Amino acid sequence: MINDLITEKLFSLQDREYRDFQSKLFPTVPYECFIGVRTPDLRTLARQLTKEQDIYMFLDELPHRYFDEDQLHVFIVSGIKDLGECMRRTEQFLPFIGNWATCDQFSPAVFAKRREELLPHIEEWLASGRTYTIRFGIVNLMRHFLDGSFDPAHLEKVRLTANGNDEYYVRMAAAWYYATALAKQYETTLSFLSTAELDSWTRNKSVQKAVESRRLTAEQKETVRTLKDSDRN
Fold first, then answer.
1. Distance CA 147, CA 150 (A)
2. Where along the chain do its domains lie?
3. Which end of the chain, N or C, is less packed with Cβ atoms under 10 Å?
């Protein structure tokens, strides 16, 4: 079976020191779920496996046992060129994502070419109630809708998603989004954040990440600092 062969291959690529290091980065994932395969090796293996006719058997066997299998899964799906099939596989896997790395490294190339068709799915992800599905939605707004396809209404959409959500990885994604929006759509985002009723934690984290960015000028950073809510962390 291809699933057994994939697991064997992953263990043949194991780096135990890397496994020990990696496991410390993900407190939500048990240590025994890590094999310790480095990302470049996983990406190479994913490209090889896409040529296998029975790879669907691996994609359908959910949940996977290992973190490395989850990573391999998203790299395989990210390479699917047909939007319909890619989206079907994306929706299939989203409920099984349990950490920020698998979420953030899940980046289907076809999404960038079909933004208009992607947006309704993002809205569904934001309303899903699942931590990493919501984060996936915010990250995709950041990746695909902060340049030529930017809509100021998305700033409010992220605010409504983050406000009242106690999940750290949702609020951190919102802060990442706003910091990136300041780098790409400075004036509009600055104006929004100056008046928006954003919770203090997300506001201050957005300011912190923007100030740490190399994409803003020193003058812009000084202005962004004035957005900070000094009354809370």
1. 5
2. 1-108, 114-233
3. C
